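Hi,

Apologies if this is the wrong queue. I'm a grad student, and the batch job for AnfO protein, required for Mo-and V-independent nitrogenase from Sporomusa ovata produced an output file that my downstream script rejects. I'm not sure whether the problem is my script or the file. Here is the sequence I used:
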Amino acid sequence: MARDIAVFIGNKGSTASLEDPGEIVIYRRQQGKWRLADSLPFQLDRTGGMAGVRRQLADIIQWLGHCRVFVAQTVVGLLYKELEQNGFSIWEFSGRPADFLEYILVQEELAARESETSKPTAPAIVETGPGCFRVSLKDIQKSGSGLTSKQVLQPLLTGNYYQVEVLCSHIPPWLEVEWESGRLDCQSERLENGVKLVIRKQRCG
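Support response: The file is valid. Your script probably expects a header line. Output copied below for reference.
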């Protein structure tokens, strides 16, 4: 399961394209928190042609060790092919690591669980449209990942979203507090087997 996630970060602290200079940072989840485990400056060197790029990537892959989840703003062409052929799960995100690490962890752990059981299941977090997400807290709980509802939802609710639809057996207490305080624009609907909560981005003014 993905407990280490490598993120390529530019000079502004957000993800960057692998074509740009930056730093590969390995984040490790320990005791419910993400910590910086290691980092390595990286700038793609094309002077040696494709063979040179492959050698450079081989050195990076060796340095990453058992970490096989890689995140950057964009990964294309030979870079994507080399990482994919070496067993990496490749993600493209724009933003700071805190915005997406939990999301990726949930999806990776669910994928690992599905692979182990060979039973096809719907993803627990689905992007249904630009800025729109559907989250099944019940599926996440069943996955045995140990993630709390707050760890799963907060990265989405603090990021760039328009609407998050949450399926749960009951509304988490912390979310109810946020709703009642007016910090979240929510609507709830009682379902036969639980609750559907729709959270929309609040608009200024």
